[in-house]
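Hallway conversation turned thread

IA: we were arguing at lunch whether anyone had actually written out O-methyltransferase-domain-containing protein end to end. Turns out nobody had. So, for the record, here is the sequence (443 residues) and right after it the structure tokens. Reply here if something looks off.
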Amino acid sequence: MMSTNKVKLEALLKLINSAARVAIEEYEKAGGDVPSIDSTEPHPLDNANDQVALKSTIRTLEGACAQLCTTLAPPSHTAINLVQVYDHACVRVALQENITDILVNHPKGIHVNELSKIVKIDARKLTRLMRLLATRGCYNEVETDSYANNRLSLILHSENPVRHMIGLHVEATAKGAAVLYETLKDSKTASSEDPDHAPVMYANNKEGITGTFFDWMRQESYHRSMRGLNGIMGSLAVLTHFPFEKYSTVVDVGGGIGAFSLPLAKTHKHIQITIHDLPEALVQARSVWARDCPDAIQENRIEFAELNFFTQIPIKGKDIYYLRNIIHDWPDHESALILRNLRQALGPHSRVLIHDYVLRELSRKRAEAEAASLGTVLAPEPMLPNFGVGNIRMYQQDLTMWILHNAKERTLQNFLELSTAAGLKLEKVWDLAEACVLEFSAA
């Protein structure tokens, strides 16, 4: 008879095998073949709006693989892997020097000596950076010390919106993370939820830079990074999973240049859209819509309305009020204020959609109770019920919100406390495999 521990390992192996097979089937259905680590162009599924089926199986695959490795590897091996990570520093170099853009012109590869002359970085040091990234599967070493792009490195191209989100992490987030401990020990910042006291601003203040991280929101690069978040989180799956065909009006609260609204306008042309945001964001939005979706402007399907969601009530009586990655930017007091103002705009049949990460419970007993009452999805045993590393991005994003905004991602219970106090009633949880859409009505 196998020991209990061995039974768990065998179960993890079965989950890995079955999840990998489902992923292969998803790739084959979308493009006829599966990608390889050396693929030199995107797979059709890479840019699909609806990746829910793929993401659902990948979170099981990643979570089970990591749990198996952590169980079987020596603890010291795993512990050092947590901290001896310099990928972000190497990616920063690649971004700053536009290495992916350069390699587009060298599809068969370029020797690091030639690349060194273009980017003006010592060839010996550049080799070490490229070697580490290629070992991670980002770039392909086609011959000794000669590198070409692959499917993963193409994400770093200057025209890919995901690049801007990656740039945000290797610059601002890395800077704030370096002083996270110091903010916990400084009496001024230790218990503060003031955005001015976010770790990134703590680091900036040491350099004489004042203000808040939201100053970035005046730059189009920040809004482009929000469009990149669509691809990372699979956010646009909401366009096919939520029944927008039943509704005629949508208000995009804090919608920026239209990371959600632009695809919505192209997918559901019957919907009248209102983008609410601050004046400087709407100036950029009008320019982007004129370029990327002029039909919506000509057909009067889009309107831009200034709104400070702390002091003003959104346009009243619309069908859907959509907030994507808004609440997580703010601590509880400010988030509650946003929702209370929003509640005053709702008609009897209005719905509020909050599209964010929802942190999962690590206790299986609590996770099972939540799943039974609210329809959330939990991982099969013997995996951690929150899918472990398969859902790691939401926990990393929680730290990102702390570092940049002194804010946070929330559990479902956290959302219920905020929404109930604001007079909202949870109707349904739409699990899109990475993030969730929480659908509320007026209580």
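OS: looked through it. The mean pLDDT is 93.
IA: good, adding that to the notes. DSSP finds 19 helices and twelve strands in the chain.
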